[in-house]
Amino acid sequence: MVSTAPQGTSDTPQGHARLRLAVASLCGTDLHYYSQFANAGFLLQNPVTLGHEACAYVVNPNGSDLKVGELVALNPIMNCQTCEACKRGEENLCTSKKFPGSATTVPHLDGFFRDSIDHPARCCRPVAAHVDPCHLTFAEPLACALHALNKGGVEAGQKVLVTGCGPMGLLAIAGAAARGAEVTALDLRPNAVAVAKKAGAKTGLIAGEYDDADIEKAFDVVVEASGAIPAFNTALKAVRQKGKIAILSNIQMRSAEIALHLIMLKEIAIVGSFQFNREFEEAVQLIESGSIDFDVLTARAFPLAEAGTALEFMASGEAFGKIILMGSGNADS
Question: pTM of the full predicted structure?
Answer without folding.
Answer: 0.93
